[in-house]
Amino acid sequence: MPALRSHQTLVAGVAAAIAQRQTDVRDVLAAVTPGGGKSLLPVIMGAALMRAGLIDRICWIVPRDSLRRQAEEAFADPRWREALGHGIALRAAENGRDPCRGLQGYVTTYQAVAAAPDLHLQEFRRHRYLLAVDELHHLPAVADTATAATAEDETAWSRSILPLLESAAARLLMSGTLERADGRPILWLPYRAPLGVRRVREIDFKAPGWAIVGYSRRQALAEKAILPVTFGAMDGTATWLDAERTTRSVDALSRAGENTRDALFTALRTGFAQAMLREAYRSCREHRAKRRAAGNGSGHEGAGHEGAGLGKLLVIAPDQETARNYLDTLRGWMPGAQAARMAQIAISERRDAQEVVAAFRLRPEPAVLVSVAMAYEGLDAPAISHVACLTHIRSRPWLEQAIARATRVDPHAGAYEQQRAVIYHPSDMMFERFRQMVETQQGTRAMVKTRRQHELPFERTVEAEPEIIPLESNATALRFAVVAPGPDFGNPPPGHDSADRPAPDRAAKDGVQVPSAVEHHLRQRIGQIAAAQVIEDQDNNLVAEGPVSYHTYNAVLKRCMNKARSEMTLSELEAALGWLERNRISDHLHLIADDPQYRWSSRRKARGAGSVTAFSKPARRAPPPGTGKPAS
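Request: output the structure for the sequence above.
Response:
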């Protein structure tokens, strides 16, 4: 059985006590350092409570659409299915009827709940749910916004999720931080009443009905659950025009003082950013070359993981336009034939953003990903070894999430001591303060407590030797470095050409098929068979009367199955596929002969396509003179 980390063991103990009716606890708060392993907690708690008959289903709410797949994978992981003895499967659901589709739960997002709160609330009232809320700190307490001018917008998620919290049979609330950047309280958490004139909000760790589990960065480092961070602080100059079109400049970002904001804005969009990208790219390229050499002789990269464990670069940009510029810069340093494959971008305006993020997580390529906010929080990609943090955001929770993208231990990258987590960042005063906090947590010095709010009930652990390797570099000096494209980014590993790469629609890592991926594959297969029957019937003139089109055959299939494919469960999709393999849709065209809905949709479709569809039945050509036979 895989070993549980200390906080996972504690949650397992709490879940067992709830399952055995030994406690009245129904709310579990897990304050886990980013990268410490929150994703397994809903699996542990859900398996215990469902086995005991205390819940019927599980709902896991995540802040971003890209995290839904990772939640599915947590329940589909074969190692933990065997270790925990569970058969639970969750699907990434849209806002449609029956979100579970015959499974034991579903994964959704804050935005989806806010778009259809009644749909989710009705589901919670029909079944006993364990509600798992990921990154809870995004949700401000509703009652705290009575006097806020923008309360209606800021608490839309909170107001939609609050009824689900109230209706759930049990709740698991997870976050990497227990404070918000704006200082407001977090939804549902128990706070102590302020004493005297003090207005500092403190969580009541002894609140009845609550179990609070903490997992600090020190604990995670001691258990080798995350990697120590190596910071590369880059200083530089900046010159800009202010609002009065007066030239302003600073000799160093680290000494910009009150000009830090403008200097940083300038640096992230001019030569300084290019210099940092170059240094991060060079470092990651060299790391990949070393790992490739070690992997070829050490056997760390086993079968089925060709090209894994080499390391990857994540670039966090300040905005989407700048992200596109960063991508062009990075591709300019790579061989033209491989640049588009090895470096990609995931931003909200791109339709393929989710697919790009999934490929970055699960496949050896791309090796470089540029993003703004989509890929920074909750992205479970252990292959990331380098992060170029080219962002202006300086809130502690945000930066903690950003650096955590590189601190996950990669099972394919060799021994723990050989792995790296390198963060390149501008050397401004605000980031330096955050860096000092992280260095303190990784070192042997006592952590300075500025507010009692941070005093979580973490277990004391033996502190290790300092593992920080501070890096200081000047962007002006690095700006003139010449970095040639290396074979590690540009070329596939030996014995691994483009034909051997996994298919673009690979469903999950290590061959695990998550429910939503299986549903998608089955829907595609059904559509392909239906389209093939249309072509066959057209070419062979098998339909004497009536329309022959993809739209028509889809309508007939819907009548035969009594349900649209988009609403079918896994078992229903499999049954529909089996029916198609045994039957011809053209034999059932009579089912839509007098269907007013089909006639209406056909007229609308014909108007939109100029009365000609992609699969319209071709007219017979006149036979050639003197043959008496139809033309072929």
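The mean pLDDT is 79.
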